Amino acid sequence: MSNIQRNRNIDTAFKYVGIGCTFFGIVMLLIFIGNILVDGLTRIDWDFLTNLPSRRASKAGILTAWTGTAWILGLTAIIAIPMGVAAGIYLQEYGKKNRLAHIIELNIANLAGVPSIIYGLLGLEIFVRVMRLGGSLLAGALTLALLILPIIIVATREAIKAVPNSLREASYGMGATKWQTIWYQVLPAASGGILTGIILALSRAVGETAPLIVIGALAYVPFVADSPMDEFTVLPIQIFNWVSRPQQEFLVNGAAAIIILLIITFAMNGIAVYLRNRWQKKVSW
Amino acid sequence: MKPIEAKNINVYYGDNHVLKDIDITIKENTVTAFIGPSGCGKSTFLRTLNRMNDYIDSFRKKGKIYIDGKDIYDKKVRVEELRRKVGMVFQKPNPFPKSIFENVAYGLKIHGIKSKYEINDTVEKSLKQAALWNEVKDKLDKPALSLSGGQQQRLCIARTLAVKPSIILMDEPASALDPISTAKIEELIFELKEKYTIVIVTHNMQQASRISDRTAFFYLGELVEYGKTSELFTNPRNKQTENYITGRFG
Amino acid sequence: MKRSGEKVIEYGLAFSGLVTILTTIGIIWVLISESWGFFREVSLADFLFDTEWTPLFTQKRYGILPLLSGTFLTTIIAIFTAVPVGIIIAVYLSEYAHKNFRQTVKPILEILAAVPTVVYGFFALTVVTPFLQSFIPGVGSFNALSAGIVMGIMIIPVISSLSEDALYSVPKSLREASYGMGATKFQTSFKVVVPAASSGILVSIILGIARAIGETMVVAIAAGQQPTLTLDPREAVETITAYIVQVSLGDVEHGSMEYKTIFAAGITLFFFTFLLNNVSFWIKKKYQEKYE
């Protein structure tokens, strides 16, 4: 019977191991954020946000980087949202049983597993070279749009799937066409879920570095872009550039820029989670 | 010796008062049937007897249950030891997705028995006791899920027997089975009562009258009537019992 | 009129779906056509068996092995970090934790997955590497160990959340059968629930491996950019992804050999991730059939 006592001891021990592991990642994240705040917080001031990049760490700012990120965010949204939502609608409402939809579905699952740097190679060849867009904002946005398209499509489908059929039937029953039903009934009802997915997808785009480096986004851009055809840099690339330098002052700049980047991604994720919770409450039909 | 004695049991799920003042004594080497309409508390009561309700967050209990004279909800009681002694067979056959042999050997292994000889021997004895040995002896390493439903349920009984309990709780063990498999299970229960104290929850009144020595009728969380099966079915003292066994509600 | 309008809309929507197929075709076409040029100049045998990768030097050698060893070394370290922690978290949350605790912790774990990878690179370089140097002799300022561990932390949520889904879908009746015989939670979890969910857990590990192989910024920042054929985790290595970044940072002329090398490296990477993804689909499908 001491056997049972031993089993119970193992059981209790595992409980603590489990709690420990659960908090391991979170504690790491906290250590890390604390570290970054200590390193970078004092470096952030108005000049840091409004200065152009410079070879002197103390004068360098992130103006071109954050404006580039804003440009990329906007352009990617304009390209990816209509396409992703449209494809999601097609798969869920039109293509339930046809072959094309089945192939698209399999394909999306496969695309979700393709490393982001491969999208960079695609963008480099197709957008930069064949379409002659060069290392422009537009080429970068198109590349990231393809990257986040699967996320938006899947989120749209999930949100539409949650809309009860009775709503569609009510609309059809009044003589509405399929598209009218989707446009006036289904999409508004699913909008919360779709929006959540879009924001999460865009937050992913904001944090991407590798594909943009591959298509030729530059680390040193001494002007603020004013057209989609301009060359650009983004915050993650600026961070990468600073972090790659041996001088301590640039690491400090990197930490400061990371704080700004984290504020942006956490804010986007926070909004997405908030919307999801609100939408889920509303959706208990 | 009284194997099971419950005194003043009240059970709550949150604000729901699901068992009210249950007092019952169950005798050794008998089959006791719990009958009553769905939601009357009979399964809940069965599960308090080996503390399977412990994992339900909202579960609360008042009163005492003694098994072999010991309060099973006492802080010093190890629930693992209790459940080894008070085995349970569930409504739907629930073999593990392992081999037939591994299913029966599982209980021995978790209780620290390592001797190969002892394990093999107990597996064989348990399967024989559960009247399954002849059907499976040549395919012990086949997946348990490849057996038929009735065989799976007898395997689950063998699995329970392997850890040598003294009491076996059965929660509608034949409700998911066809009539032939059901007959086999009933026959088995009849044989097992020589060695074990059996408590069985059933929806099926013919079954209760066929296999049990004593019957307890539960209604709306109360133990309405408890007595010898032959008397309860032929001459119920309570009006509600009579209505139920004659099929006026259910 | 109305009807033809409806059809136009349907085709428009279908076209958007087709874009994803065009993306796949585009990826495969781009990788094959550009590496075709590469393999006209470098024999497949040299590519696969030469032990040096020096396309950027004057003495050019094109053996992928050093990049592969760098990739696998960092991936293995990441998996050894993430799998035990991820599975323990999954078991704890699914079998032990209170419902409220689970609901609070899961979104917090998701934050780990939301942090941009360049940030993890900084973490590896400025926190983890100095920490490792403080007690392991011979750890370089760029090394595979630090990058691998941080990648592991990054993919913990991938493994824990997919594994938890798999554990959660194991029928409650199996747990009851085990508890009913006097098993503890630990025994029930690891002898019944985990084996029953093993295919789902395997899928989570495979997807974690695929993530680690394709991960770029952490290794580009913290593992160094030296294609050395080594299995010593304290040394600097270069992964396939880090090499692509390294070349891209310079000015690469289209048609040059450097330009082609990144596609040859890319197709190698794509081959592995494609393989892993399809193995995971296959397991998932087989597993669903088993339960139905």
TrEMBL record, chain A:
Alphabetical UniProt keywords: Cell membrane, Membrane, Transmembrane, Transmembrane helix, Transport
Keyword hit for Transport: yes
Record GO terms (molecular function): phosphate transmembrane transporter activity
Recorded topology in the membrane: Multi-pass membrane protein
The keyword ATP-binding belongs to this UniProt entry's keyword annotation: no
CDD domains: TM_PBP2
Major place of residence: membrane
Domain of life of the native organism: Bacteria
Compartment(s) where it occurs, according to its Swiss-Prot or TrEMBL record: Cell membrane
GO BP annotation list: phosphate ion transmembrane transport
Pfam families per record: BPD_transp_1
Residues annotated as domain ABC transmembrane type-1: 66-272
One GO location term (cellular component): plasma membrane
Residues passing through the membrane, by range: 16-41, 62-91, 136-156, 182-202, 209-225, 250-275
Family: Belongs to the binding-protein-dependent transport system permease family. CysTW subfamily.
PANTHER family membership: PHOSPHATE TRANSPORT SYSTEM PERMEASE PROTEIN PSTA, PHOSPHATE TRANSPORT SYSTEM PERMEASE PROTEIN PSTA-RELATED
NCBIfam families linked to this entry: 3a0107s02c
Protein's recorded name: Phosphate transport system permease protein PstA
Gene name of the encoded protein: pstA
From TrEMBL, chain B:
Principal location listed in the UniProt entry: membrane
Keyword Nucleotide-binding included in the entry's annotation: yes
Localisation per UniProt entry: Cell inner membrane
Keyword Cell inner membrane: no
Pfam families membership: ABC_tran (PF00005)
One record GO biological process: phosphate ion transmembrane transport
A Gene Ontology term for the protein's cellular component: plasma membrane
Function statement: Part of the ABC transporter complex PstSACB involved in phosphate import. Responsible for energy coupling to the transport system.
Listed name of the protein: Phosphate ABC transporter ATP-binding protein
Source organism of the structure: Chryseosolibacter histidini
TrEMBL record, chain C:
Residues annotated as signal peptide: none
Cellular component GO terms, alphabetical: plasma membrane
Protein's cellular compartments: Cell membrane
Main subcellular location of this protein, as a coarse class: membrane
Top-level taxonomy: Bacteria, Pseudomonadati, Bacteroidota, Cytophagia, Cytophagales
Molecular function as annotated in GO: phosphate transmembrane transporter activity
Gene name as annotated: pstC
SUPFAM superfamilies: MetI-like
Family, similarity comment: Belongs to the binding-protein-dependent transport system permease family. CysTW subfamily.
Topology with respect to the bilayer: Multi-pass membrane protein
One BP term from GO: phosphate ion transport
Keywords: Cell membrane, Membrane, Phosphate transport, Transmembrane, Transmembrane helix, Transport
InterPro entries: MetI-like (IPR000515), MetI-like_sf (IPR035906), Phosphate_PstC (IPR011864)
Function of the protein: Part of the binding-protein-dependent transport system for phosphate; probably responsible for the translocation of the substrate across the membrane.
Domain ABC transmembrane type-1: 68-280
Annotated TM spans: 12-32, 64-91, 111-132, 144-168, 189-210, 262-283
CDD domains, per database record: TM_PBP2
Name recorded for this polypeptide: Phosphate transport system permease protein
